[in-house]
Amino acid sequence: MRPKIAAGNWKMNGTQSALDELDALAAMLPGGDTRVVICPPAPLLIPAVARAKGIAIGAQDCHAAEKGAHTGDISAAMVADSGAAYVILGHSERRADHGESDADVSAKMQAAWAAGLTAILCLGESEADREAGRTLEVIGAQLAGSLPDDAGAGNTVVAYEPIWAIGTGKVPTLEQIVEVHDFLRAELTARFGADRGNAIALLYGGSVKAANAATIFEAENVDGALVGGASLKASDFAPIVVALAAS
Ligand SMILES: O=C(CO)COP(=O)(O)O
After folding, report:
1. Which CATH architecture describes the domain 5-246?
2. Which long-range contacts does 72-76 make (Cβ < 8 Å, 24+ apart)?
3. What percent of the chain has pLDDT above 90?
4. What is the arithmetic mean of pLDDT over 181-194?
5. Is the ipTM of this complex over 0.90?
6. Which sites bind substrate (predicted)?
7. For the chain, how big is the Rg over CA atoms in Å?
């Protein structure tokens, strides 16, 4: 049985007052075994861990090195020391804004695992890739290049986030989501074997809202969502968690 995971990526949004949303969210959660993760900006990790009830906390990135002369970066050990349990890696915004390659992301995955974190590995094609019919090729290459060999359910979640769907209100059809998630599942089982490959949770991300969540969760290989804009307010995010719990 794979876990159901509703993860919120606050991106570069929120100061300490935004942590009130964690209290509001905790009060609206459906209970049960659906996992809820909120990934706030780095300065909020420690107070978020202290405030969150029934909500796991994650970072949005970490450096591949253990420590050293990397001004402005945070290590996986620092993330773990904050009490966070997850870290998002390879988000398309970091790949674009910071030039992160698959090899960079792979090294960060290793660092995250070494610190005991669960990595949420993000993959996704651009609009040009999709229009050129290269979606599966691009995603397959990203998965092969950025997911190291020791991946398993205990340390990895994979999130499919088509770049053209992030923050745009454009959502792939259910058929398009099913095609990519079934492909990812097949790649994982081919590489790691059925037991390990079937145990890794797959999330969909890109303009997930309360209004479209239930439809997206119909897909067999969608085990949850990675939500940006609609994770900032508890009143927007809680219905997504409720839809996942009911799926
Ligand atoms: O990038 C995302 C989550 O990591 C998705 O963002 P939106 O939900 O705002 O489209």
Report:
1. Alpha-Beta Barrel (3.20)
2. 74/42, 75/111, 75/115, 76/108, 76/111, 76/112, 76/114, 76/115, 76/117
3. 99
4. 98
5. yes
6. 9-11, 167, 207, 228-229
7. 17
pTM of model > 0.90: yes
Q: Which of 91, 93, 100, 125 is catalytic?
A: 91
Task: Report the separation in Å between the CA atom of 91 and the middle of ligand 1, taken as the mean of its atom positions.
Answer: 10
Is residue 161 among the annotated active site residues?
yes
Which atom belonging to ligand 1 lies closest to the Cα atom of 231? 8
Residues in the chain: 247
Q: So where are the chain's domains?
A: 5-246
Rounded CA separation 92/74 (Å): 19
Which token pair is 229?
Answer: 């804009």
Query: Under a CB-based contact definition with an 8 Å cutoff, are residues 103 and 147 in contact?
Result: no
pLDDT (mean) for 51-63: 97
Q: Among this protein's residues, is 98 annotated catalytic?
A: no
- On average, the pLDDT of the chain sits at 98
Locus of tokens 């610190």: 115
CA 26, distance to chain mean position in Å, is 20
pLDDT band per the 50, 70, 90 thresholds, residue 1? confident
Q: What is the DSSP letter of 231?
A: G
The alpha carbon of 69 and the centre of ligand 1 are apart by a number of angstroms equal to 31
Which residues approach ligand 1 with their CB closer than 6 A? 9, 91, 161, 166-167, 205-208, 226-230
| Distances, alpha carbon 22 to alpha carbons 154, 178, 242, in Å | 25, 31, 16
Percent of all residues in the chain with a pLDDT value above 70, rounded to a whole number: 100
